[in-house]
What does this fold into?
Amino acid sequence: MAAYNKVTPEIAERLKAVVGGKRFSAGDAVNPDYSHDEMPIYGKYFPEAVCEAESTGEVSAIMKICAENRIPVTPRGAGTGLAGGAVPVCGGVVLSTARMNRILGYDMKNLVVHAQAGVLLQDLAADAQEHGLMYPPDPGEKTATLGGNVSTNAGGMRAVKYGVTRDYVLAMTVVLPSGEIMRLGKTVCKTSSGYSLLHLMIGSEGTLGIITELTLKLIPQPDMDVSLILPFADVAGCIAAVPGIKLSNLDPQSIEFMDIDIIRSSAAFTGSPVFPTEMCGEPVGACLLVTFVGNSEDELFAKMEKLAGVVEEAGAMDVLVVDTPTLKKDVWAARSSFLTAIEADTKLMDELDVVVPVDRIAEFLVYIRGLGDDVGLTVRNFGHAGDGNLHIYCCSNDLPEDEFKKRAKAFMDKAYGKCAEFEGQVSGEHAIGHAKKEYLKESVGDTAYGLMGAIKNVFDPDGILNPGKVCTDTCREGE
Ligand SMILES: Cc1cc2nc3c(=O)[nH]c(=O)nc-3n(C[C@H](O)[C@H](O)[C@H](O)COP(=O)(O)OP(=O)(O)OC[C@H]3O[C@@H](n4cnc5c(N)ncnc54)[C@H](O)[C@@H]3O)c2cc1C
It folds into this structure.
């Protein structure tokens, strides 16, 4: 297959003509932010040019120019990704959909919203609420775009009850690598109508097409909710309580897990210690944060009573009700900022976003702690205990970068090996990007990895869309 071409001054002029001078940059004028996402440890790669599109037509026109000239294109939303997915590892053009940020309208009879791909999660959440509706997916980073969320199949803190982003996408407008515009899906609740290209596009990390518009399912806003903090003496006891909570038919919206180290970091970062570090003089080892939604106070009270019985038996040190709107806001703000709290006091870090069967979480975390000690890295962790998705960070403040990377690689090799032994998956929600390809290949095996590559070739025979990601091995060498 032919090599990629460079963005020549002539091609740059053609791209600039599509988006206009203010939304085009090239060479030294490119904002360095486009060279990385939220994990710069995976390397910085500068694009030759950046185009900030404002319409599907512009995206299509840019793709046509790049397809004609075999120039790699990396789609980008807000750049909050954690796997290097939006980073232009093969150079070429970064095509940002962040300015496509209009909510196009609600269909109240069918409970859907039509929105452009660059709308921020926080903006849709707030706007839907004003319509008495809720968009259930709730990933921690609220300034991510909907296009990024759909492309990574983002999860978040309500997945245990409502599912993940995939479950809320009914239709989309997508621009194929050739520049052709396609509509996938319909505003219907079910379908058995051939292969689901819509679901292939969801979670494909911008390697199959560029999403420009979305039709998303909403639900009526629940009347009320209550959150409870459940402190435990240790991690194992804390995690062991989770299956009992799930089995008790209480249908929690969230079951979040945090250990004492992250509780302390979060308190230092936010300046508001909302999670307990000791109960009646006894040290707390870990906490669960559980939320219920309901339509009346009686309903919520009954759920809380039943939960108290279940977790008391499981060894909870107490059941703390998050009982004021201010406390609720502070508790969830603290939970949402765990990663930012780690970033704030860590110089170098790498992350693991594995998902394991719920009954193996504690064992996995104990293994990981030991692994951190073995390789000489600090381990921080928290996660979505209700669905087995763990966010584990190996960190260092004093190692040189080369030595850190060597140790992090040794850590990751063993951690992913243990995840495979536990029948887990490489990524629960942050996706593969270019950082986790090797582990994806090992995890799914040659046949599945080969099929992924074959699907990619059908959509993108010239390999120009987000090369070097998920299942494409390298950038093309020059001819
Ligand atoms: C503090 C913090 C907390 C986080 N918490 C969570 C969490 O709880 N759950 C979770 O799932 N993630 C979480 N993330 C990760 C991140 O926010 C998500 O991966 C998010 O979905 C990325 O959206 P984005 O707009 O920033 O996309 P980007 O980072 O810009 O891109 C991500 C991927 O999507 C592709 N892409 C972006 N836009 C488009 C488009 N329009 N068409 C096609 N492809 C596109 C890119 O090519 C790339 O492969 C967190 C990140 C941070 C920094």
Summary: The chain has 14 helices and 20 strands. The mean pLDDT is 95. Residues 37-38, 74-82, 85-86, 97, 117, 139-141, 144-145, 147-149, 151-152, 154-156, 205-206, 210-211, 339-340, 429-430, 466 surround flavin-adenine dinucleotide (CB under 6 Å).
